[in-house]
Specification:
The complex is a heterotrimer of chains A (374), B (368) and C (495).
Chain A lengths: L2 H21 L8 E11 L5 E8 L12 E8 L2 H12 L2 E3 L5 E4 L1 H4 L5 H9 L8 E5 L3 H5 L2 H4 L3 H12 L10 H9 L4 E12 L11 E13 L2 E6 L1 H9 L8 E6 L2 E17 L2 E12 L21 H25 L6 H9 L3 H5 L6 E10 L1
Helix pairs in contact in A: 9-10
Chain B lengths: L5 E2 H15 L4 H9 L3 H25 L7 H8 L2 H33 L6 H18 L1 H27 L15 H10 L17 E2 L5 H26 L9 H5 L13 H30 L9 H10 L8 H11 L1 H31 L1
Parallel strand pairs in B: 1-2
Chain C lengths: L1 H18 L7 H11 L6 E7 L3 E7 L5 H14 L6 H7 L6 E2 L4 H9 L2 E5 L4 E5 L28 H11 L5 E8 L5 E8 L5 H12 L9 H8 L11 E3 L2 H8 L4 E5 L5 E4 L17 H30 L7 H11 L6 H21 L2 H21 L5 H14 L6 H18 L1 H17 L1 E2 L2 E2 L42
Antiparallel strand pairs in C: 1-2, 2-4, 3-5, 4-5, 6-7, 7-9, 8-10, 9-10, 11-12
Helix pairs in contact in C: 6-9, 10-12, 10-14, 10-15, 12-13, 12-14, 12-15, 15-16
Classes of the chains: A alpha/beta (374), B mainly alpha (368), C alpha+beta (495).
Chain lengths: 374, 368, 495
């Protein structure tokens, strides 16, 4: 190779390297504000108040205390607010690790938040599998309870809604499931409802510190991203009974003056549509609850050796049926479809006038519950 | 050693790779937009037609084992040099357009899923450089690479899909053919240029070597590719339901659901980054074919890879700098649908006949 | 200086003689020529002997054994019966086992430089093997230790090495072609193969390739390996090297050709497959399940070694969302005070590791241990404590460095590759890593020498050959020889 050619090759390589280095935009994790949970509220002047729980590492290799802090900004739109977070923190707000969306009461009870849901559905960095929930009060408040729980508030909620919910009788919806429900025929869906419950202070060094835990006893129902109603604990139990992949519902039965607790360890839910009647057949397998029974579910659950008398099983069956009948009546009364009946009708009959617009009270329900010992 | 030599097995595996390479990106949302939850049926119909064409192609490959005739020679001998050039022009445009569309999908995939933000030029040039390297090493290296990576890529796709199945309610795909059979067939034709991925075979036609069987490996690979692609589309439609048309990059979003606990990181990136190799291999194959088209169009044969030719192709791939890639995919391709359909569907069906005629003519010429 | 002048004289003499092919010199002329050639060389020794007829013995003192000269040449000539003619000397008065008759002066120089003693009168000349044995003991080779299996290793003496091979291949099918390479070193190269297994065209190509070599000297087998590689491959080794006779024989039984180079304890084998890098000599003496597991482990560790640093850089610079949150927090904690970018940090660690490895290799063993300790403690722990390098990066750098040694023959090239891929990852993110892997795969897939694809049996797929690839099948089920290596006889076991 002649020296001129060699110089040419070296120059070319240098130019390519320089062009490459300047053309690809990287952002080190240290220059990112990594958000793990987002809270959305509405201010009095109808501005969007966004609270972000951001990872805040300590110094040195060992982490002491909580590793997150919250930042609250106000913006006209969600994108504007996220940009405000970047500006305030001097780092790029990154939603790739965000797995929770909390809607504050001021937001979900007052306005249609379709645009916000669309924003997250269309964002590639935001995962549709994230959890979505509504706060009892302000979302900002909820995300700030991390200190009270000595852990990240977002991670505590995520742990419950994504990892534990299936074994404690808590039906949940991911962002995708919620967004789908708002765009399908019934346009009705729910999110979980989270409230902070204060408990007695056990920290002798900080007697004024708030301590407590999160409770998930309700659900909030939305139609076209507008608030419809709130489901109480009984309805939540009923919906849970109708959700096949969730178990762990608890029934308390009084037997010979003693209160016994039974837990649903597995179930089979069968929904059949015959003309305008929906036949709901729920088969429950229950067992006497023990401390080691929580979290046990699924088809491979071991059989219990403690016999449940038939009269107790009958009582359980009655309780469960009543629960479901009340829930169905509630849906008919409020014309909300949380059982996905519109979708079921569509799957059977295709999209037509009836399937897209029938009211819940047009449908008759035939509910049967069978309870067996597991 | 023939650097472009390909065995039937390697060709089959490459077909499998290219089938599943691109249809997991922007096609599912386009189909969902047109025919709703029946998008997967469009795939089934298109693949049925592809199957027929592939059968004729496999037959032609078998017939060609005697003389190893290249496509240009077959066309020149049986039809005319003008037809031959016209076919090359159509193929050239097709390969460039499909490369642009694929590159655009990849560009977005890397930007949104892997956070690789760069300009179009710096994204395309390294890929073209890799393609140039592959051209320099011969098609055999691409074929062997496909053979090597095929099992891994298929495993990754299966892993991605099987984890996602747990969260999918397949009721969403019912009622089947709700969009209407005529609409489905119409959509199949309108999106036909997304199919017939085996078209690269025309530029390696004379190099394909048959050892034992022709039909079994080709159809086995094709069947696996079809099953994976249709399964992915079914899962996509069932998972995203009414919001499917808004999910522009299917695989990027599907993979998120293959992770059990989202705070445990996205391990799906491992499978995704292996799978994306199949898309890149497809782009490399199309650039190789465009390069060969160029050679044949101008009647050239380069013993060493020609830098100017590859630079010319690279320049054409810069088209999205001036025209949005979406426009190329829709408006431009719509206008060329008929010539594309001719080379995609008419050519393979008539190829065994053309080959027999060419063989006869050549034999007569030799005897005279 | 003197030595090189001396060599040059011999060389010019040979060139001169080559030009004079066919011309017969009288023996007196040979002696004169020899004296001229070895002028000023005290190593060249002559001795006059009378055994009924006057004879001259010529030899190079340093190359010959005094005892052998005395026993095989001088004693029979001086104590034996009187010779009547030169034929009688050749047949009865030399007791050496090997006696050669040099055809010309060039041959005379050749045999003398190989330790033969030349006996000549005025018209005739013979050479008796009196080579001195300057070989070390046969020990276990330090580069390929095994837990079980033979511990013999090749040494620097080609003849001994050939003996070690023949000891294991007691068959007339073992053929040896002797070639000499190197203008000055005139190094003996034995090309060994099994005539009933090895494909003739491969053997011929190897012999031609060796004959084509035009080099001053061959000091080790590695010199030869670069010339045997037809494509002059820049990356990855294309010629097998082994220090163990059992390995060499194993490869010959699969149809490969072995090249023994005098002066080198390494025996070369061609054709070479990439999968051989995964194979260790001990694999064949262990249980096949363990062997398979070990090979998978080697494969994973090499892949991880090459890719881990680049992926770490990628994840830190581009793909933060991929990292599990808790690990991300750990990484954030430990890298917050680091003054370098992730790319610079990782490249620094790789370079430091390579410096340590290189220094360790050159240090005497006693110092080497302390150096590695000092290196690990000072550069690792202290750098982390000083906040120069993050602990996760050190861990990944060290893991990657150690992993490379599972494939010891390719450590250097793999180390270079990981450095390049890490740089590309830092610049282009995961796209760069994927494209780099594709280029490497295209490169590997396109390599083919001596009718053998480098990546066989994976691509092109050869099911039979996979019995000894990553997943090792039991030895008893190996019925056919590898198809990837051209061979005449495909049956390994049975009819």
């Amino acid at each position: 190779m002649s020296s001129l050619k060699r110089i040419g090759v070296i120059l070319l390589v240098a130019i390519v390297l320089i062009a490459m280095s300047t053309s690809f935009v990287s952002n080190d994790i240290l220059n990112r504000a990594i958000i793990i949970g987002l809270g959305l509220d509405l201010s009095e002047d109808n501005q969007l108040v966004v609270t972000a729980e951001v990872v805040s590492p300590g110094n040195g290799s060992e982490q002491v205390g909580t590793f997150s802090k919250t930042i609250t900004v106000t913006g006209q739109t969600i994108a504007h607010a996220i940009q405000q977070i970047s500006q305030q923190m001097g780092k790029e707000a990154s939603l790739g690790q965000c797995a929770l969306l909390v809607l504050g009461k001021s937001l979900y009870t007052k306005v249609d938040f379709s645009q916000i849901v669309d924003f997250f559905i269309h964002s590639y960095n935001f995962k549709e599998s994230s959890a979505i929930c509504c706060a009892k009060g302000e979302a900002k408040e909820l995300l700030n309870y991390g200190e009270a729980m000595s852990q990240s508030a977002s991670l505590a909620v995520i742990a419950m809604l994504q990892q534990q919910s299936q074994s404690v009788g808590l039906p949940t919806n991911s962002l995708l499931q919620y967004a789908r429900s708002q765009k399908e025929l019934s346009c009705t869906g729910f999110t979980n409802y989270v409230e902070f419950v204060p408990s007695a202070n056990t920290d002798s060094q900080n007697p004024n510190k708030t301590q407590g835990y999160f409770a998930y006893k309700k659900l909030v129902v939305f139609r076209k991203n507008k608030f419809v109603c709130t489901l109480d604990e009984q309805h939540l139990r009923a919906l849970s009974l109708l959700t096949e992949d969730v178990s762990g519902e608890v029934f308390i039965v009084e037997v010979q003056g003693e209160k016994l607790t039974f837990i649903v360890s597995k179930k089979k839910v069968d929904l059949k549509i015959v003309d305008q009647t929906v036949q709901v057949d729920v088969q429950l397998k229950c067992r006497l609850a023990r401390t080691d029974d929580f979290g046990l579910s699924g088809n491979l659950t071991v059989q219990t050796d403690e016999d449940i008398p038939q009269d107790v099983l009958d009582k359980l069956q009655l309780d469960a049926k009543k629960l479901l009948q009340d829930f169905v009546a509630f849906q008919q009364q409020n014309n909300v479809d949380l059982m996905g009946l519109h979708e079921r009708y569509r799957q059977k009959l295709g999209t037509n006038n009836f399937t897209s617009s029938f009211a819940m009270d047009q449908i008759a329900f035939d509910i049967s519950v069978t309870v067996k010992q597991n | 050693m023939n650097r472009d030599k390909v065995t039937v097995g390697q060709f089959s595996l490459l077909t499998l790779l290219v089938i599943s390479g691109s249809k997991f990106l922007s096609l599912p949302s386009k189909l969902a937009e047109t025919v709703g939850h029946d998008g997967w049926l469009v795939l089934v119909v298109a693949f049925l037609w592809d199957f027929v064409c592939l059968a004729f192609l496999a037959w032609a490959i078998k017939l060609n084992q005697q003389h190893h005739l290249p496509l240009d020679k077959i066309l020149r001998t049986t039809l005319s040099p003008i037809v031959e050039k016209a076919v090359h022009v159509v193929f050239f445009v097709m390969f460039v357009c499909r490369s642009v569309v694929l590159l655009n999908s990849c560009y977005r995939m890397f930007a949104v899923t892997f956070d690789v933000s760069t300009n179009w030029v710096m994204f395309v040039l390294p890929i073209v450089a890799v393609a140039f390297f592959a051209i320099a090493r011969g098609f055999n290296s691409i074929a062997r690479m496909g053979q090597l990576m095929c099992a891994v890529i298929v495993l990754c796709i299966v892993a991605l899909l099987s984890f996602t199945i747990r969260q999918t309610d397949f009721g969403g795909i019912f009622p089947i053919a709700e969009a209407g059979v005529s609409n489905i067939i119409k959509a199949t034709f309108e999106h036909s240029y997304w199919f017939s991925d085996y078209v690269f075979v025309y530029y390696i036609f004379e190099h394909i070597q048959v050892k034992k069987r022709v039909f079994t490996p080709i159809f086995t690979s094709f069947a696996v590719g079809v099953v994976l692609t249709v399964a992915m589309n079914v899962i996509f439609v069932a998972l995203f339901g009414s919001i499917a048309p808004e999910i522009k990059l299917a695989m990027s979003k599907i993979s998120v659901f293959s992770v059990a606990e989202i705070t445990n990181g996205r391990w799906d990136w491992l499978t995704l980054s292996v799978w994306i190799m199949s898309v890149l291999v497809k782009i490399v194959i199309f650039i190789y074919c465009a390069y060969k088209c160029g050679e044949k169009l101008f009647g050239l044969h380069f013993s060493k890879p020609n830098v100017w030719m590859i630079l010319a192709i690279a320049l054409l791939l810069m088209l999205p700098l001036f025209v949005p890639a979406e426009n190329i995919a829709q408006d431009f391709m719509d206008k060329l649908l008929v010539p594309f359909a001719l080379v995609q569907y008419l050519l393979p069906i008539s190829l065994p006949l053309l080959m027999t005629l060419a063989n006869k003519k050549l034999n007569t010429g030799v005897q005279k | 200086m003197l030595c090189s002048a001396h060599c040059f004289t011999i060389f010019t003499q040979r060139v001169y003689l080559r030009r004079q092919t066919g011309k017969i010199y009288c023996m007196n002329n040979y002696l004169n020529q020899l004296q001229k050639t070895y002028q000023n060389d005290d190593d060249f020794t002559t001795r006059q002997v009378d055994c009924g007829m006057p004879l001259t013995l010529c030899f190079l003192d340093s190359m010959c054994s005094d005892i052998k000269i005395s026993n095989y040449v001088v004693e029979p000539l001086t104590y034996g019966e009187k010779a009547t003619d030169f034929e009688c000397i050749k047949k009865r008065l030399t007791t050496g086992a090997i006696v050669k008759e040099p055809a010309n002066f060039f041959d005379v120089l050749d045999v003398m430089s190989n330790g033969y003693t030349v006996i000549m009168d005025e018209q005739n000349c013979i050479a008796v093997d009196t080579r001195t044995t300057l070989a070390r003991a046969i020990i276990e080779p330090p580069t390929s230790m095994v837990m079980r299996g033979p511990r013999e290793g090749f040494i620097e003496d080609a003849k001994t090495n050939l003996t070690l091979i023949r000891k294991r291949l007691k068959t007339a099918d073992l053929k040896v072609t002797t070639l000499n390479v190197g203008k000055y070193t005139n190094t003996t190269v034995f090309v060994c193969y099994l005539s009933s297994i090895a494909e003739k065209k491969v053997v011929d190509e190897v012999v031609q390739q060796v004959q084509k070599i035009n080099i001053d000297g061959v000091l080790d087998a590695s010199y030869l390996s670069r010339y045997i590689d037809k494509n002059k491959t820049a990356l990855f080794r294309r010629v097998g090297m082994t220090e163990k006779p059992d390995v060499a024989v194993g490869k010959m039984l699969e149809g490969r050709v072995a090249l023994i180079v005098d002066g080198s304890p390494m025996v070369l084998t061609v054709p070479y497959l990439y999968v051989e890098d995964l194979q260790s000599p001990g694999d064949y003496y262990e249980d096949n399940t363990m062997t398979s597991l070990n090979r998978i482990l080697r494969f994973i560790s090499v892949l991880a070694s090459v890719l881990l640093p680049s992926l770490y850089v990628c994840l830190k610079m581009y793909n933060y969302q991929i990292i599990p949150l808790k690990f991300l927090i750990t990484v954030l904690n430990s890298t917050q005070a680091i003054p370098f970018s992730p790319l610079a940090e990782m490249i620094l660690i790789i370079v430091i590791f390579d410096i340590l490895r290189e220094a360790n290799l050159r240090m005497p063993s006693a110092v080497g241990i302390s150096l590695s300790l000092v290196g690990a403690i000072v550069l690792g722990d202290a750098a982390v404590k000083a906040g120069l390098i993050g602990a996760p990066a050190v861990m990944i750098g060290a893991l990657s460095g150690i992993g490379l040694f599972t494939m010891p023959d390719n450590t250097l090239i793999l180390s270079l590759l990981r450095l390049v891929i890490t740089y590309i990852a830092g610049v282009m993110g995961i796209l760069g890593v994927i494209l780099s892997m594709m280029v490497i795969l295209f490169y590997l897939c396109s390599m083919q020498e001596y009718h053998t694809p480098f990546l066989a049996p994976f691509t092109p797929t050869m099911d039979n050959d996979k019995q000894d690839a990553v997943l090792n099948k039991p030895l008893v089920s190996w019925k056919k020889r590898p198809k990837s290596i051209p061979n005449k006889n495909t049956t390994r076991r049975g009819q």
